[in-house]
Design goal:
Elements (H helix, E strand, L loop, with lengths): L1 E6 L8 E5 L4 E3 L2 H14 L2 E5 L4 E3 L27 H21 L7 E3 L11 E10 L8 H16 L15 E3 H8 L15 E5 L6
Helix pairs in contact: 1-2, 2-4
Length: 212
């Protein structure tokens, strides 16, 4: 299975992506990214992650409406809830960038199907699995930081998928609004409104795990 991660940012400025597997590639051009994703998906299964909040919690207590998602930060982790400045910026940017990627990819692989279920890894051409990447403790150079982020998330995903059945999401909010689900509906990757309530896998990657 090919694995790709997109580090969400403004295309042409702070956008990066990487893919490993039979179709290893990386870069900073969003349209080249989509073309490479399509080529990989035509030949086999693809797991694709986006580094931006892909779902938000739905809560009943007013004082906790904007509180961090469960698992978003804690001991040894930075306080960066989805609603804080960096998280909110990434979320909004992700809405338009991920929508563009999914919409542009759809007609290139019209027979492909997508899922959020990582416990049943996709098998065969045209099978796409989507997830969220969450990078913390970055230690990276200015010129390559976005591609490096993508590789960090890919490595963490690979480790977790050695045993998909016991691979737990780093962030869990069973009662949520799935932004990724909304974008899948809008771009034709899904037709079931129930996907709006399904959280996706969140893969946390620590730069310190790769840079001593």
């Amino acid at each position: 299975m090919n694995i790709a991660v997109v580090d969400i940012g403004k295309p042409g400025a702070n956008f990066g992506w990487a893919m490993v597997g039979d179709a290893t590639a990386e870069g900073t051009d969003i349209d080249v990214c989509v073309q490479r994703l399509a080529a990989a998906l035509r030949k086999g299964p693809l797991a694709l992650g986006f580094e931006a909040p892909m779902f938000v919690p739905i809560r009943t207590g007013p004082k906790r409406l904007t509180a961090a998602r469960s698992g978003e930060f804690g001991k040894g982790l930075p306080s960066r809830p989805f609603s804080a400045s960096a998280g909110a910026t990434s979320l909004v940017t992700g809405l338009v960038v991920v929508s563009y990627i999914l919409a542009t990819l759809r007609p290139l692989v019209p027979e492909a199907t997508a899922t959020l279920d990582w416990r049943l890894p996709p098998v065969g051409p045209g099978r796409l699995m989507l997830f969220e990447a969450f990078i913390t403790d970055q230690r990276k150079t200015a010129d390559t930081r976005h591609v490096e982020d993508a590789h960090l998330a890919i490595a963490s995903f690979q480790r977790g998928m050695r045993d998909p059945a016991s691979f737990h999401s780093s962030v869990e909010e069973p009662n949520c609004l799935s932004l990724l689900g909304a974008m899948m509906l809008r771009t034709g990757w899904d037709t079931d409104p129930a996907i709006l309530s399904r959280p996706c896998l969140v893969v946390r990657a620590h730069a310190s795990e790769h840079h001593p």
